[in-house]
Amino acid sequence: YGVDNIWDASHAESVHGLVQIFHDFDGFGGLALSLMLPVVAGYIGFAIANKPAIAPGMIGGLLAGKLGTGFLGALAAGLLAGYIVKYLATKIKLPKALASAGPIFIIPVGGTLLVCALMSYVIGDPMAALNRGLETWLLSMSDGNKVILAAVVGGMVGFDLGGPINKAAVTTAMALLASGIYDPNTAAQVAIIIPPIGIGVATLIWRTRFPESLQEAGKASTLMGLIGVSEGAIPFALANPKIIVVNVVGSAVGAALAVGLGAVNKAPISGFYGWLAVENWFVYVLAIAAGSAIIAVGSLLVFNGEASKPEVKKESAPKFTVSR
Fold this sequence. Notes:
- The protein has helices at residues 17-33, 36-49, 54-67, 70-91, 101-142, 146-160, 164-175, 183-205, 212-215, 217-226, 234-239, 243-260, 281-302, and strands at residues 93-95, 321-323.
- By secondary structure, it is mostly helical.
- It folds into two domains: 34-127, no CATH class; 144-302, no CATH class.
- A two-stranded parallel ribbon has the order 1-2.
- Helix 3 runs antiparallel to helix 4, helix 3 runs parallel beside helix 5 and helix 6 (146-160) crosses helix 8.
- It is globular and about 65 Å long.
- It is found in: Cell inner membrane.
- InterPro entries: Bacterial_PTS_Sugar_Transport, PTS_EIIC, PTS_EIIC_2, PTS_IIC_fruc.
- Residues 1-309 form the PTS EIIC type-2 domain.
């Protein structure tokens, strides 16, 4: 139907039923993405202080979105929630009769109030300024050499595979779509899938170069890359951090090639199911293949068949104390 802005509200009343359905589905996706910040913050808190930190983290993540702090603000909210709840759990001594109320009411409510206060009056403005600064920086680079811009965004996305630097670059690039600036998003969506595909292909080419525990993980990494999930490459980065440099180089080169050769991705979709909607999709796929090839070769050089590092035992969640 020639529609390239399916998210626009005008399509809700389109004469074509299929366009209305696609518009509704886009709304469902937007609703799901709106959960990203609170869910990220909630589970960061959970990782630090267990279940009592989920509510403070999620509410802090919601507040981070309202304050315009982006993913960095959600990260801060999650860390605050986790450590505040952990501190309260070890310092507050409850009578035995109220012990059961601690983890389900007293600590979560107290943690939520403290997290919201700190986000609103201490951290919110600096984080929002940092987020706007990152967006302004990328915006200013788009007026110059777009290849350098793409390489920078691609390198950031490939650095920590879904971590704070990755998410800061991706969310900022997606925010610029509303301003009609597509190069950062094109670079980000290309770079998201290059590391997992490249590493996965490397395990298929020469399995014995990788620890036994990662040989099967390569298949999952390839599949996750094709559907647009960069986290599939995380086990390899944990086993050998040297691969991070390879990921950055491959992602930067692939992103620069895609943008430099004229590919344009106007949608926040990195998986294979969105490739045909990309302008100059052949160049887009070629850039993905080139970046993945760099990472595949680099992976075979970095991994030499040695055993991976032993796992570090996680710290147990804090326990609530009961006064006698």
